[in-house]
Specification:
Number of strands: 6
CATH superfamily: START domain
Largest sheet: 6 strands, antiparallel
Helix content: 25-40%
Number of helices: 2
Structural class: alpha+beta
Order of helices and strands: EHEEEEEH
Mean pLDDT: 90
CATH topology: Alpha-D-Glucose-1,6-Bisphosphate, Chain A, domain 4
CATH class: Alpha Beta
């Protein structure tokens, strides 16, 4: 899935919103406070429920330009990319991409069915989130 959207906010503003959320999640999951400079290749375990957890690895972090992370479980591997390009001082374009690899035939079939049903809703929800960021500026 890929979403490309122009936003009427400066690139550093959007970047800050994304990274502030990342730093909050790391602190909530690990109890550790990390700096932005420590994010490249940073890994931690995120617990979604008592029986569900995943390893998160930040694969690319470039100030005001890019944030990519990988979520790995025993069932699948999920790569998310945020690439931000300034258009001028007051606007930017964000390219959001998701790639998923599933392990096992049944998991692959399940993910295809769920992906078709949920994909549309996910895109709509993500666009709403971007609009909320834009209105908060």
């Amino acid at each position: 899935m890929q979403i490309v959207k122009k936003l009427n906010v400066p690139a550093p503003f959007l970047y800050d919103k994304i990274i502030d959320s990342v730093l909050f999640d790391i602190r909530k999951q690990t109890g550790k406070s990390v700096t932005r400079k420590q994010l490249n290749n940073y890994e931690y375990v995120k617990e979604f429920s008592k029986t569900s957890r995943a390893k998160i690895k930040i694969e690319k972090h470039i100030e005001n330009e890019a944030y990519h992370f990988r979520t790995s479980t025993t069932r699948n591997d999920f790569l998310v990319k945020y690439d931000i390009r300034p258009l001028d001082d007051k606007s930017c374009e964000v390219v959001y991409e998701e790639e998923m690899k599933s392990f096992g035939v049944m998991q692959k079939m399940n993910d295809v069915v769920v992906g078709l049903l949920v994909g549309f809703l996910k895109k709509r929800q993500f666009k709403k989130m971007l609009e909320m960021i834009e209105t908060s500026y």
